Amino acid sequence: MKAVVLLSGGLDSSTVLYQAIMDSCECYTLSFDYQQRHLRELDSAALVSRTAGVVQHQVVRFDLRKWGGSALTDDAIELPRLRSTSEMSESIPVTYVPARNTIFLSFAVAYAEAIGAVRVYIGVNALDYSGYPDCRPDYIQAMQEVFRLGTKQGREGEAITIMTPLINLKKTDIIQLGNRLGVPWELTWSCYTGGDVACGVCDSCRLRLAAFAELGLKDPLPYASA
Question: Could you tell me the pTM of the whole model?
Answer without folding.
Answer: 0.95
